[in-house]
Amino acid sequence: MMISNGIEDEEKWLAEGIAGIQHNAFYLHRAVDSNNLREALKYSAQLLSELRTSKLSPHKYYELYMRAFDELRRLEMFFKDEDRHGCSIVDLYELVQHAGNVLPRLYLLCTVGSVYIKSKEAPAKDVLKDLVEMCRAVQNPIRGLFLRSYLAQVSRDKLPDIGSEYEGEGDTVMDAVEFVLQNFTEMNKLWVRMQHQGPVREKEKLEKERSELRDLVGKNLHVLSQIEGVDLEIYRDAVLPRVLEQIVNCKDELAQYYLMDCIIQVFPDEYHLQTLETLLGACPQLQPTVDLKTVLSQLMERLSNYAASSPELLPEFLQVEAFSKLSNAIGKVIEAQVDMPIVGAITLYVSLLSFTLRVHPDRLDYVDQVLGACVKILSGKAKLEDSKATKQVVALLSAPLDKYDDIVTALTLSNYPRVMDHLDAGTNKIMAMVIIRSIMKNKTFVSTSDKVEVLFELIKGLIKDLEGISTDDLDEEDFNEEQNSVACLMHILYNDDPEEMLKIICTVWKHIMAGGPKRLPFTVPPLVFSALKLVRRLQGQDGDVAGEEVPATPRKIFQLLNQIIESLSVVPAPELALRLYLQCAEGANDCDLEPVAYDFFTQAFVLYEEEIADSKAQVTAIHLIIGTLQRMNVFGVENRDTLTHKATGYSAKLLKKPDQCRAVYACSHLFWVDDQDGIKDGERVLLCLKRSLRIANAAQQMANVTRGSSGPVTLFVEILNKYLYYFEKGNPQITASVIQGLIDLIKTEMQSDSATGGPASDAFFTSTLRYIQFQKQKGGAMGEKYEPIKL
Asked: What sections of the protein cross the membrane (predicted)?
């Protein structure tokens, strides 16, 4: 209630003030129109007396001031015209000083002073000095601030600057600088003193009001920056030291933050670069609560943009040692501001790092130095809990990746992994994903085992369980995505030198073994294929190379591959291991290493026998074994017979008859390889096909017993297609009469009452007959072969 009363009262006082100004303005206008100087001075003094109030807040006082300001502009026009009032400007300057109250007197004096300077009857510097000194008479913060703001306003275009019409004899630029600096200093003192003007309970409101008036003070710095005569030398020796002295001595948080920001924004970047030491030297002397991280970040941002504007500026940055000065200043500020939260310190280093990456991208030592400073801040503290600080550390670590587009450069930074160690487990993994994405996006090959070691140390959050997080706690989808990213990464690790490539594979193997069984199904396959790629590059190098301790030979790599795939037994993942063993067997086949290939097949059969129990998995596995074995050409007769015998034996032992049938007719390909030197054993092919027919027949009868119908004849049609394949390939055992018998058998089956020829098997058989008909009509040698078959 009290607050609303206060607001109402203030509105009432403002209305009274405005009414007073309007009342006196009416008589002032009448006096001006009748060229009556005495009356004009009398009513203008009364009008300005309304500004003597102490009842209004700065916001309301500003409204009142603007009303008076408009009238003063009109009065100034009257004072300029000597013909109208008949009084010389010198006499007028004396006359207005007889006003009864100090505030109206000084407003009138500033107004006449402005006309006095314009008349050039006295040097501008003398009038300005007189005015700035006289304004000291008003020490009430609000009234004094607005009075001095008026002085700054009327004098800004009348400063004795170089090239200005008011430039006098001697060093007048310094007089202009001195006038603005003095006005600035006095205004700042008044502004700072405002905080003590009201009751303590309204401190927050007072601070807000003070903040609204900050531009009145800051305008002086803007005027200083606009003075043509203020070159680097004057700025360095006169302007900056005086301004900084005032900022440091005022010991006020709001003023210090705002004015430091003003300096950075209004003066040229070139000046900042050349006076960096002086400017930065003031930072540790400021109040501990001043938000220096924002001030310094803006300074570094401006300097970065300045450096980017022209490559020729780089020597200047090196000459003034900008990086080391900024780095030292940040260190001192962090020391001075004991209570600065960790996020503030890291934000400063993020800004310094982006400055370094933009200005000195080639200086990796600088980048590492910044990261080292962060390690120093973070060390001794527990893992980061503060999400804002964590975000800043991620920004710090991401900056070099974005800049260099090359993870290899980041890998040379010794402090990079040390900063990562301070992240909590979750963020560590996010950062690891950022690193992997950067590598994948830029297709950067990591080409030495040492760099791979550093890289895997960086992404260890994805490769093994960190403290506090186990694989069981993770979301399945996220876990799969992370591990697939690691798998992709493995294909980017590459070196043309086989020796180094083998070292890389061993390094990766060492790291993924520490990751626990859940990760192995994702990480083992890419590693196996990476090793097989190396094997194919080394084909033909079977023996040891003389003079080398650890030569990278296929045999040696296959030994390693055996260990790698064996590690899947702890998962367990027998189906995956079987596939990988068969891939390795193919690799050994290409390298002409019969014992190694045989060993891999043996391992695959052992897995099939002992580990793969599911009937569907068995079907898939036996077909993979048959397919791989068919392509092998390294085996001698004895080994091939052993493996073929195993494969056909397991085929016939599958659980379901249709699966048995299909696996057995697939085995027929093991005895007929359609290559120049391939095995072509027609009798054993026929044996397989006959055996599959018997199984198909048994399956048909079993279906008849259990369902009362013999089921579709698809299996017979499939076997017929195999017969046709070998018939065309020239197997002497497969004759037209054998095929004729099979066609008749299928037709009989399809016509029998118990058969339920499904639409799929009917279409399949029709299509097969159509193919035979097509071959017959085609003529030539093939047409003759097909001729005896009657459809």
From this structure: none
